[in-house]
Write a structure and sequence with these properties.
Number of domains of chain A: 2
Order of helices and strands of chain C: HHHHHHHHH
Order of helices and strands of chain A: HHHHHHHHHHHHHHHH
Shape of chain C: globular
Helix content of chain C: over 70%
Structural class of chain C: mainly alpha
Largest interface: A-C, 105 and 112 residues
Largest sheet of chain A: none
Strand content of chain A: under 5%
Strand content of chain C: under 5%
Radius of gyration of chain A: 31 Å
Number of helices of chain A: 16
Largest sheet of chain C: none
Number of strands of chain C: 0
Helix content of chain A: over 70%
Structural class of chain A: mainly alpha
Chains: A mainly alpha, B mainly alpha, C mainly alpha
Shape of chain A: elongated
Radius of gyration of chain C: 23 Å
Oligomer: heterotrimer
Number of helices of chain C: 9
Number of strands of chain A: 0
Chain lengths: 278, 501, 200
């Protein structure tokens, strides 16, 4: 990893740090109470940026199901046999983006032995999300295609290993590391294991589209509300301070408090404070 | 699904549901009784929970039935069961006590809101203590903090400086909480989980810069919240100008809960395989604890205001707690836990005595305490006995604390720390002695500046105060109760941290 | 093995532009003493960060930030400003170096942490691989809801959300305590004898 990569991989975080420093500086160095609250806001918002940056996945999309994951879950349930069939379906659905329509039609024809190919193709939908645009047409086409006899047909998969490897060599980009880790070798191995493949194919249905990590979003939704609550209370306090002291400048507040503090025992400190206030 | 299975959530759910109803009640007695009722119910639930944990070991409760790393978990072991017991126990004594004091210091139109906020504050503190999820700590920390800011500002009816004190606390508290969130974010980025037990698992062998920085941010964030020595500047004003009952409650609970969070994170999330933990203990917590003990005690001696004096004393006492845990031994951690418990008992009693004086004389200046022993003997002796406990005189809880702490210091080989503990106790003798002398020997100055108390404080205040004074003595004599529990809790924590039990 | 191809993609450039604007707005807020301008800028700052959240696929957060950060927060601050002061007075010098030192220490600590951070956008980073990924996989079958964030918010971490509503409630109580009836506001509550003495 060279320096350019190193910087690119971190620029978001560094900007967050700078924003955080500005916010914190406003809080510490500025004397106006409203300005301090604005500073706290900058500070907190920068932390939101940090959290959201953590959850970002390149090539990912907003964590709202766009495929038929929900239908999948509702209709098929987790058992692997059904899941595998569905996985192939969804995989084909995803694959559209990459392959042309005619090419896909041929793939659908030998859907049973080529199930893994399709699952593999799925990964490309991560790079090209336009899969969805064509997805529905193909799904319809798929429904008419014969259902694969899952377990048995999957045993024939080792034969298709080379084919898969070939397909892979056509892939213009390196396989995304997120997903199923289909390297040519790994895939050939995996193809030998029918049960595993079935599971993976089913898995592919959900993995077809990469979703950005939802957890930081949830945390920050909470934090935003906490932030605005703090702002409200802080401003209410500032309003009260203004009414009680006639100012919201820290210097003048301190001077006023000093006078109150040393009011009982008049002396040098009280005079200085009075001068400071004047 | 009996009530017993739901026991872990009761201390949170009951007051959360009760707080909004408090606002709907008519002014006057009703909100107070309602709030008291729920502190007692909460206390009862905490006692049941504590007995359960003491008998059967740690309890895990998955909220919403989602298994821990996915959902939020409540995880109660002896350490936080003890703190839960403490917070709800103090609340169940301070809330009844508060009525007359609040009547004087807070506008009657605000009583429903006031007791609602007090209940929320307690809920927040309990929520911070009970949870096993790092981010959930932050949410409940903010619940308790937001209500605390408003409660402190309520002192503005007597002195407008309560407003600036509350504002400063708001700024410092928000920075502290946000630092804590940054720390959690760094840990999350390094491990991918927010559940504390899961974090501990994932962190094993992960000594990278994110984890180190995360540790530092959690330490500083919580340090701000608990008024660790150089970050304590918000505390004296906040405690001085807050309404007396609020001070009594906060001084006994808020900082203790923050210390507990520090203990929870340092011992059961991080572990001793991290070199930086040892360094932080030896080079940060130990010196800062010692410095806090001395500087804050020393400043306390020169205060003209008894509440402010006790506030500085609180900063010093936090130094003892940090000192104990910085030894990173079972003895040290035991001393810390024991002192968390004991200090809450003594500080609550002391601030309650001050509240009684404020009720009758209208001031918490030391001059208002002159000759008090003749006019308010019951309050005077409550103050003196709790004060002796603060100094660490035998047969009081303070002595037990000091005893454990001295043992831990010598066992850890920090013999100089042992001498410093004794020396700082002598400073405590100086400032408590000063107030005691004024109360017992001095004649009240008849210059009309201060109202002379005409009668003893009402029973509704004396009884709760003396319950705590009695607790100071009871737990000072029955040393086995807190000591055994704290030792067991400390052993469990040390096991988690990977140190020798 | 970075898995990190889209280095100078349009998304990256949008990110960079938004972050640069955020920086500029923040600096403008720091420098301006005109509180009205500062409050307006803080609204713009929130909107910019909302746009930035969209570019990071955090649409729910963006909605909330736009509504709460740019909307409610700005209105609150406008109100607060109108009730307090319009201009910030220059502060007595002397505090700035200390503040700067503290801020630099904090920044340095975080910069130190970034050295070991997984690359931005890395799908295999621990934060994205563990619990976060489980939510994506499990929501479909366990909570029939298309928006995963909503599912996590409402169910898996529903207790945080309950805490969040509690925070809003607490803020409401706090503001009512501070500004509501009987709050002894200066000049409004004549029965407040002590306060009057103080102000005299």
């Amino acid at each position: 990893m060279d320096w350019f990569d190193f910087i690119l991989a971190r620029y978001n975080y560094w900007i967050f740090i700078l924003l955080m420093m500005i916010g914190l500086y406003v809080v510490f160095a500025r004397g106006n109470l409203v300005k301090k609250i604005v500073g706290l806001n900058i500070f907190q918002t920068s932390v939101f940026i940090y959290y959201i940056s953590i959850g970002k996945i390149f090539g990912g999309t907003a964590p709202i199901y766009m495929g038929d994951e929900l239908d999948a879950a509702a209709h098929h349930g987790p058992d692997s046999g059904e899941g595998a069939g569905h996985g192939a379906e969804a995989a084909a659905h995803g694959a559209t983006a990459h392959a042309g329509a005619e090419e896909m039609q041929s793939k659908i024809d030998n859907a049973a032995p080529g199930e893994e190919t399709l699952a593999k193709e799925t990964l490309h939908s991560k790079i090209d999300n336009s899969a969805l645009d064509h997805g529905n047409d193909l799904k319809d086409a798929l429904k008419t295609a014969p259902r694969p006899e899952e377990a048995d047909s999957l045993h024939s998969l080792p034969d298709t290993g080379d084919k898969i490897a070939n397909t892979l060599s056509h892939v213009d980009k390196t396989p995304p590391k997120a997903g199923l880790q289909f390297t040519p070798d790994g895939l050939t191995d995996a193809a030998g294991d029918a049960a595993h493949s079935a599971a993976v194919a089913a898995h592919g249905a959900v993995e077809a589209i990469v979703y950005t990590n939802p957890l930081p979003h949830v945390l920050i939704l909470t934090a935003i509300v906490v932030g605005v609550a703090t702002t409200a209370v802080g401003l209410a306090l500032a309003v009260r301070i203004r009414e009680a002291y006639g100012t919201i400048e820290e210097d003048e507040l301190e001077a006023a408090d000093d006078i109150a503090e040393f009011g009982h025992q008049p002396g040098a400190p009280a005079q200085q404070a009075a001068e400071g206030a004047a | 699904m009996s009530i017993v299975a739901q026991l872990p959530v009761l201390p949170i759910v009951m007051p959360i549901m009760a707080a909004p109803i408090t606002l709907l009640l008519p002014r006057g007695r009703a909100p107070h009784l309602w709030a008291c009722l729920f502190t007692w119910l909460t206390f009862a639930a905490c006692i049941a929970l504590f007995r359960e944990v003491a008998a059967t070991g740690p309890i895990s409760y998955a909220l919403g039935d989602w298994a821990p790393p996915i959902g939020i978990e409540y995880r109660i072991d002896l350490a936080n069961a003890l703190v839960l017991l403490l917070v709800s126990g103090i609340a169940s004594v301070v809330f009844p006590f508060a009525y007359r004091s609040v009547q004087l210091e807070v506008d009657q139109r605000q009583t429903p809101l006031f007791y609602g906020a007090l209940l929320i504050c307690m809920t927040g503190l309990l929520g911070v203590t009970i949870t096993g999820d790092a981010f959930n700590v932050f949410v409940f920390l903010e619940i308790s903090s937001l209500s605390t800011y408003a409660l402190i500002a309520m002192g503005a009816r007597r002195d407008r400086r309560a407003l600036t004190a509350a504002f400063n606390y708001l700024v410092m508290g928000t920075i502290g909480a946000t630092f804590f969130v940054i720390g959690i974010g760094l840990l999350y980025q390094s491990t991918g989980t927010l559940n504390m037990a899961d974090l501990a698992q994932q962190l094993i062998g992960q000594d990278n810069r994110m984890v180190q920085a995360g540790f530092a941010f959690i330490l500083v964030g919580m340090g701000l919240k608990l008024a660790m020595f150089p970050m304590h500047l918000w505390l004296p004003n906040a405690y001085t100008y807050a309404p007396s009952a609020v001070t009594a409650f906060l001084a006994a609970t808020a900082t203790k809960v923050a210390v507990y969070v520090i203990i929870r994170f340092f011992f059961s999330v991080f572990n001793f395989d991290f070199a930086f933990i040892g360094a932080a203990f030896t080079y940060v917590l130990l010196p800062l604890g010692l410095a806090g003990m001395f500087v804050a005690s020393f400043v306390a001696v020169f205060q003209e205001d008894v509440k402010r004096m006790l506030a500085y004393s609180s900063v010093a006492q936090i130094g003892y707690m940090l000192l104990g845990l910085s030894f990173a031994t079972v003895e040290g951690l035991t001393a810390s836990l024991v002192h968390i418990f004991n200090h809450a008992l003594m500080k609550a009693a002391l601030f309650m005595a001050v509240a009684c004086v404020v009720l009758r004389s209208g001031s918490h200046s030391i001059h208002a305490f002159a000759g008090l022993s003749k006019r308010m003997p019951v309050t005077t002796w409550a103050f003196i006995i709790s004060g002796l406990s603060l100094i660490g005189v035998p047969l009081t809880v303070g002595f037990i604390s000091k005893w454990y702490l001295l043992n831990a210091a010598f066992a850890a080989g920090h013999w100089y720390a042992g001498f410093l503990i004794v020396a700082s106790s002598l400073i405590a003798l100086a400032y408590i002695g000063r107030v005691a002398e004024v109360m017992l020997l001095k004649e009240p100055a008849d210059d009309g500046k201060f109202v002379l108390p005409k009668e003893e404080a009402p029973l509704s205040m004396l009884v709760p105060m003396w319950i705590l004074v009695a607790a100071n003595i009871y737990f000072g004599v029955r040393t086995d109760l807190t000591g055994d529990i704290a030792t067991r809790a400390a052993e469990a924590l040390m096991m988690m941290a990977g140190g020798a039990p | 093995m970075t898995g990190y191809a889209p280095s100078l993609s349009p998304v990256f450039l949008i990110d960079l532009a938004l972050l640069t604007m955020l920086m500029l707005v923040a600096i403008a807020m720091l420098r301006s003493r005109h509180l009205f301008a500062v409050v307006m800028l803080s609204g713009i700052y929130s909107l910019l960060s909302a746009a930035f959240f969209v570019s990071l696929d955090a649409v729910d957060v963006a909605f909330t930030e736009a509504a709460v950060g740019a909307g409610i927060s700005t209105v609150l601050m406008l109100g607060g400003m109108l009730l307090t002061a319009r201009r910030e007075k220059p502060k007595r010098p002397g505090r700035a170096p200390v503040a700067l030192a503290a801020v630099i220490v904090v920044g340095a600590a975080l910069f130190y942490a970034t050295i070991d951070m997984p690359a931005f956008g890395d799908a295999s980073a621990p934060a994205n691989a563990d619990v976060g990924q489980q939510y994506v996989e499990r929501t479909a079958s366990e909570i029939p809801m298309p928006n995963i964030v909503t599912a996590v918010l409402a169910s898996y971490r529903g207790f945080d959300t309950m805490g969040e509503t509690m925070v809003i409630f607490t803020a409401g109580v706090a503001v009512m305590l501070l500004l509501g009836a009987g709050s002894a506001r200066g000049g409004r509550d004549v029965s407040d004898v002590e306060n009057k003495d103080e102000e005299a």
